[in-house]
Amino acid sequence: MRLHSPVPTGSRTFEEKLNIGGRVLPPGCMVQLNIWALHHMEKYWGSDHWEFKPERFAPENIDKITFYQFVLFSAGNR
Predict the structure, then answer these.
(1) Percentage of the chain with pLDDT > 90?
(2) What mean pLDDT is predicted for residues 1-24?
(3) What does 16-60 look like in DSSP terms, one character per residue?
(4) Which burial class, exposed, middle or buried, applies to 56 when counting CB atoms under 10 A from its CB (0-12, 13-18, 19+)?
(5) How far is CA 46 from its chain centroid?
(6) CA distance linking residue 60 with residue 10, whole number of Å
(7) How many whole angstroms separate alpha carbon 33 and alpha carbon 11?
(8) Which of 49, 29, 39 is closest to 9 using CA atoms?
């Protein structure tokens, strides 16, 4: 499901202002997350990021995956 995610994007609307890298997003601003791109980033998955490797999610490896690295059906508060 990482390679072919059923949910390719997700969005969030902020209730409070948010400062990201010195840029301020006002309350009510909607931000779109490209989940498909996140699931294919070499930075997180390595040079073999296009390969199907179920062992990435084996019990001994699951702790290596961060909360927002693999966003199957979205993440965070609703």
Answers:
(1) 15
(2) 84
(3) S-EEETTEEEPTT-EEEEEHHHHTT-HHHH-TTTTS--GGGGSTT
(4) middle
(5) 15
(6) 29
(7) 6
(8) 39
